[in-house]
Amino acid sequence: MRLPGRLAAAIEVLETLEAQRRPVAQVLKDWGNAHRFAGSGDRAAIGNLVHDALRHRRSLAAVMEDDSPRAAILATAVFLPGYCEDGLPDFEGDQHAPAPLTEKERESLLSSGRETDGLPQSTLSPHDSPLSLADRPPVLADRPLPSGQICLDCPDWLRPSLERVFAEDTARQVGAMAARAPLDLRLNPFTSKPERVDKALARHKPLRDPEFPFLRRIPATSGFQRAPHITSDEAFQKGWVEVQDAGSQLAAELAVAGIKPRTVLDLCAGAGGKSLALSVFMGGKGQVFAHDIDRRRMKDIWPRIKRSKAHNIQVVDPDALASHEITTQGVDCVVVDAPCTGTGTWRRHPDTKWRVSETALQTRMQEQQTILKQAGAYVKPGGRLAYITCSLLAEENETQLLEFLGQNTDFKALNAQNLIQSLRRDETPAYLPSISVGDHAAGDLGVRLTPATSGTDGFFIACLTRETA
Ligand SMILES: C[S@@+](CC[C@H](N)C(=O)[O-])C[C@H]1O[C@@H](n2cnc3c(N)ncnc32)[C@H](O)[C@@H]1O
Description:
Blueprint: H1 3-20, H2 24-34, H3 40-55, H4 57-64, H5 69-79, H6 103-111, H7 159-166, H8 170-176, E1 183-187, H9 194-201, E2 215-218, H10 234-237, E3 241-243, H11 246-255, E4 263-266, H12 273-281, E5 287-291, H13 301-308, E6 313-316, H14 325-329, E7 331-337, H15 350-355, H16 358-378, E8 379-389, H17 398-407, E9 411-413, H18 416-421, E10 447-449, H19 451-454, E11 459-466
């Protein structure tokens, strides 16, 4: 397919998506099934356009003064790098092209064009890349609206919550949440040596960071570029690497930092991402018990354990938990990777940014409190409760912890700075910020990672200790 055909297809997909409010992956898959002539390169290109349009949906509409899917896709192609590098697309004489550009569209695309407009190419300076691996593609700037307000690429109802956490840094934080994410890999010491894996991955030119020996980062692509299909690589198939965002790796590492637990219950294990990382950060020692309330979500955990040779993980069936000795006798550490709104993963799932509702937030908050209470009961005296979300909202983090701590006075929160220190890096990494949250600040209750400050997905991690009787 040529560029005009790809643009027309992306407009069609975005229209369907916004009419039906379904996950973008499903809509793209349906489009592919209905248009068999489109090759894998075309489908990836259309997917890139649609995902980028969703990432910057608001600011694109503001630039175009038009919030239609067509305006969003045209603006994506013209303003974001790697698409129409030669200026405005030419639809002349192409039967698969969208309708010709109107005068108004042409004007908006030209007057705000990259060369002429003053849309900064990046809202992030190099020193915002503390992971030293972060190399982000330019992001569309958040533009002031006629009202003087900044146009944020997030739903209006979430703006007060984000401002409560980020205050005057909100625009920069939300801007970074609209960038594409890199592909992060975690080396698996149970199956291979780093030198061998690095050789196998060399063609992807992964970045490394001495502070994160297990992390390899393949930089984010831009425009029509495709991210590597890593799951068909030898390194993945042989279990030498797992695909896992650096923030998720760090969350697992912090959950057991400074302790040597013999028994860890991963209460909300899902497909086992944290369980596998916990197993590594525990040096293959002790036992990780992986459980989830939803058996279907655990279906991939068995092949993943097998591939990664993580011999210290046991899967606990949902029905077996209540009578299992780990709950009757307690464990040294319970990890709660709680169900949440996923606001920290908007870079990877930009459609969820526009689908998440206030009702969903309320539901998640109730679930989080229920799970915390359940988890607390399984922690042995002297043991640890690690609470993790991939949400940046105080409602799902500090608020939950404060409520739990208020009702369970035998638990005390570990100071976030001490938690970071217990990673035992030579120096405290500057990229592990603990951000105070205004009226919900309760000391340094947890570590908040964000795309802007740590170059990772957004995560919140807090560790509580249960006092000995
Ligand atoms: C954020 S996801 C877990 C992701 C997983 N830990 C990983 O790293 O890949 C949250 C999980 O919590 C599970 N969950 C929800 N309510 C639960 C409950 N009451 N008890 C245990 N698991 C629960 C969901 O089924 C979901 O799989």
